[in-house]
Each structure stands twice: as structure tokens, then as C-alpha cells.
Write a structure and sequence with these properties.
Layout lengths: L12 H9 L10 H16 L6 H18 L10 H10 L15 H24 L6 H10 L8 H11 L5 H7 L5 H28 L7
Length: 217
Amino acid sequence: MAGHVASEEQFSLQEVLDTFRLCLSENKEVYLEHYVAGWRGLVKFLNSLGSVFGFISKDAVNKIKILVTYLEGENGSQYVTVQSMVAYELDNGLVDLTKRGSHPESGCRTLLRLHRALRWLELFLERLRTSNEDSKTSIMCAEAYNESLSQHHPWLIRKAAGMAFCVLPGRPAFFEVMNVGPPEQVVAMLGEALPLISEVYQITEELYAQHDLLKLP
């Protein structure tokens, strides 16, 4: 476990719930600023469990920095929502569609990597929510990974991930780092948060599928 962590670095499931609640506009567009903020919270969750998820959290931090650079840049107004970002980058030829080229860190490609990892976390947290005290977190995490992120990772990373999952702490440790309260309260809050995360994921998935962006190199 991470030990005594500074409060600003401590994971809060409530914080993630609140952030993803702000993610969608009335027209169901995804606000990039809140999406990034939600991911900051999820990175805290990964880091609170020690170095086990380091191979994912480090990459996520890098992707967050890239998106923040776009949000705060001279064309920041084009990156208010994921929808406006996709339209802007495609209209201006800023996305490498078929092979790596001059735009290896386009907003579209960067967000796609976070999008894939979000699916893994959603699947894993849903398994945690519906699990019992005897459920093995290693199996739940591996199943979620195999249904999502593993399809996009080379063999070496898949192998390392499988080994990392084997040393995951038990279900009580995961519930403890949620900083919510007793298990039943954690389960209830996950029940609120996961539909919000799922909706953000599905809207992004459909947008990327519509523009044939799901397999960006």
C-alpha cells in the first residue's frame, strides 16, 4: 500500500464521480477538460495501489500532459470538447490516419490511448462492484484487461501485465483506497460512477467509429 499519502495525491471515488458527471454537455458532447480531470483522479487510484499499475499510469500521465498542452495552447478553443477536437484535427490534416507520420501526438491519437484504458478500468471496477469478499482481484483485473487493453499491447507488455496482476492486493484493499467508507457505500458509489464513465466511453467510441479513428497507428 502507498502509506500516508498527501491529501492532494489521495484518490477519492467521490471526486471521480463528480468529474465524470461534469463531462457531458446537454448535447452529449464530451468536455475535454473534465475528461482529463477524471483521468487525473483515476491515475491517483492506480498509484494508490503501489507500482503494480505503473505501466499504465505512467503512460496515462504522459497522455494527460499532451492533452493539457492542447487545451492551454493557442488553438485551445478547438479542444473544448472531444467532438470539436476531432473535427478540427481531421479538417486540418493533423492526424496520422494510416501510419505514423508528422503528427505522432495528435489529440485524436492521444485520447484514443486513454479511451482504451478507460474501458479496462470500467470493466475492472464493474467486476469489483459486483464481487464478493472471496473474489480474486487478480482474476477480475486480468479478465477486464484481456477484454480490452491487451488487444492493443505487444506480447511483452501483456506478459508483464499478467505477472503484475498476480500480486494485486485483495478486495478490501481496493475498497479502502476508494476513501468512501464501508464496502456497501463503496459499492453504491461505484453504482453511480460507472454508468457515467460508461456513457462517456460509449459516446467517444461511437464518435471515433464514425470517423474511422479506432485503429490510429
